[in-house]
Each structure stands twice: as C-alpha cells, then as structure tokens.
Design a protein that fits this description.
It is built from 1 helix and 9 strands; from the N terminus they run βαββββββββ. It is mainly beta and 98 residues long. 17% of the residues are buried.
Length: 98
Amino acid sequence: MSQPKWRCRFWQPFAHGLNEISRGANDSVTFANGTITITGDGTAARNASGQPEAWFDPDAPVTVNFVHLGGEVSQVTGLLPVHNSMAIGDVEYRFTAV
C-alpha cells in the first residue's frame, strides 16, 4: 500500500450539523474528489442555561460514518477525537474527526 494520500482534520460540517440544533445543508463533507463522504451524529453540548450549543458534547460518544462512492461503509463510534482509515485501490486515506 502506498503512503497515505490525505491526513485531514475536519470540523466545519459537524459544528453545524447532526445534533439537535441543526440538521441542514452542512451535514457532510467529501474528500478524494467526492468519492468519500463523511457524516457525523452526536449529542449537542449544553451551555450554563441548559440550551444546546452548536458543537458536540465532549463527554458523549459520536458516530462518524465514512462512505465510499462504491458502497463501502465504515462507522466509528466513540469520544472525540475519532480516527479512521480507508484503503481505496492502492491509496490509504486517514481521517481524524475532532
């Protein structure tokens, strides 16, 4: 297998995405020319007033889905940061969701 092609940290979609605050247009991010789509789901953090914040609760697990255009799905659940790698052909893609 060749050296990793991507070493990515991504946060933008999850800051606005899949928690109780918002489930809108920024719910996913793509890499490798759109052949890998990543989504996440988790519990929103709460402020001092108990209102949900626009980021995940750092003490609660999140689920991150890595989907290859060809149908391969890899799901990782745990506390942030979560790590995953996908081999597509002779290229390995490594991801960290923080």
